[in-house]
Write a structure and sequence with these properties.
Length: 176
């Protein structure tokens, strides 16, 4: 991500988003590496909001959806919400009344449920019971003051990485 990545940390300046937008450039926000950017897209939003508070949350949302699809030559439908489908679903705490502003304030504990291709990937553990999934496929943990689930066992994967590396590697994007 150009705003927070290496340029901001090592050079002390950042990409001039305002000028790029004035010129009609297709500005895209994403994550490339936790070594040169933030830990996840939510953290990238926070950095952008700090440096460019005048850019509307709706425009930032467009930069990670429609603009990204255009940059990658994807079908525009790929970047649009489809309210008739529940295969891909993100339920979050309502902190702000504006949905785009609400996304900007999101954090890992605030994600209630994430479904990808109809499979629960992450969320409040209460949803596992409602969705009647095989609980053995999930890891239960606490983040903030909430009990969460995640598909698979990230700590087991982390242990395997540690064994391969010969030392412990922290992954800041893991919420536990």
């Amino acid at each position: 991500m150009l705003v927070s990545g290496i340029k901001l940390l090592l050079i002390g300046e950042t990409f001039d988003i305002d000028h790029a937008l004035e010129l009609g450039a297709n500005v895209v926000i994403g994550t490339d590496s936790t070594m040169s950017g933030e830990t996840n897209l939510i953290a990238e939003f926070a950095v952008i909001r700090e440096h460019f508070p005048h850019i509307a949350p709706r425009e930032l949302y467009r930069m990670v959806t429609q603009n990204a699809a255009r940059a990658l030559y994807l079908n525009p439908a790929y970047a649009q919400l489809n309210p008739s489908s529940t295969d891909n679903l993100l339920l979050v705490d309502k902190v702000e009344s504006d949905p785009f502003e609400n996304l900007m304030t999101l954090d890992a504990p605030g994600i209630k449920l994430l479904l990808v291709d109809g499979i629960p990937r992450y969320g409040d553990s209460d949803y596992l019971e409602l969705l009647d999934t095989g609980d053995e496929d999930y890891t239960i943990f606490r983040t903030g003051n909430r009990e969460k689930f995640v598909i698979g066992d990230p700590l087991e994967i982390n242990d395997a990485i540690d064994d391969a590396l010969g030392y412990h590697k922290d992954f800041p994007y893991l919420p536990f």
